[in-house]
Model the fold of this input.
Amino acid sequence: MDIFERRLNNYGPLGIWAEKAHGYYMFPKLEGDISNRMVFRGKERLVWSLNNYLGLANHPEVRKVDAEAAAKFGLAYPMGARMMSGQTEYHEELEKQLAEFVEKEDAYLLNYGYQGMVSIIDSLIDRKDVVVYDSESHACIIDGLRMHIGKRFVFQHNDIENFEKQLNHAKKVSEQTGGGILVITEGVFGMAGDMGKIDKIAELKSKFRFRLLVDDAHGFGTMGTKGMGTGEAKGVQDQIDVYFATFAKSMAGIGAFVGGNSDIINYLRYNMRSQIFAKSLPMPMVIGSLKRLELLKTQPQLREKLWNIANSLQSRLRENDFNLGRTESPVTPVFLQGGIPEAAQLTYELREKYNIFCSIVVYPVVPKDVIMLRLIPTAAHTLADVDETVNAFIEVKNNLQSGKYDENYVPQMKIHP
Done:
């Protein structure tokens, strides 16, 4: 069979909805300045779908530095991969400051978070090594593990008893192969919002002699008294052997970094194929990240504002009997009962009647009878936004429970422009 024919006969679990959902539920276009209110399909909406935690995306100081750096250097400089011709003092300075902030000896700047995590895993382990990882690990971790031809064991999400059981299996295999053990988890799980039990995991390091890699994309800038991340919040930053975070969340930019002891970071610097063979991160993004990091460190009121909004939103929702699952972070999932038709209808009504735009998550990401509305509070939101949203959610939940959104309910849904 022709490879294209085989693929086009099976669009996948998301692709099967492309014709009905494209441009509205999937690949929607949000326009205007990045903020709490943006334009969707020609109308202003209250937006809860952006990982702009600290509100830096449209911060005037950030915009100024971004523009000045682009005017001075353009978007091409430096040309080439860093190992060959793309190294600058700005790249080195950003790495130095990131390492100091997360209390690691060294850091290495990465072009992209997703690509970076895949390449870190690929560089750290070979066929003799064994990986133990959390069952709810991000897709970038799973894709990195798909490249691993050695043995791997998955433990039930945040289940330390099961984690230790998998470690015992890993230890037996590693003793046979002569390899080591790498444990991978997340600081904050971006879908459900709960924190990884990295403190409990770290307690088992001496017994099983493993190395710990933590993806803290959602924890960096939001968790801990300094915003250092989940390791700081849990009091085990020094126990994380390889600390990874992206700029796409709290830093509202492009890129990522990995931190650790100087020897292992230097090893990654000379062995990560995704960086060795890729063009260096453009100067405006590097200089812009220096400014973002400066604000993250010197303006704690941004993080305080974020948590004020997050705590208010979550407490108000819980007071009105909404199920927020196990979140321990600003990530705010709202779980409702219903299938895909009900999910489409209530989301459409949220956007068109109440002018509220939030992400919708349905099967196969969650069970078939579950609807998850995922809200991301930020420092750009206001308490008035919280009131408006909770009031709308109360009405939508009542409509759902009363059966308004059943199969007979057909609103005037104009998905395609």
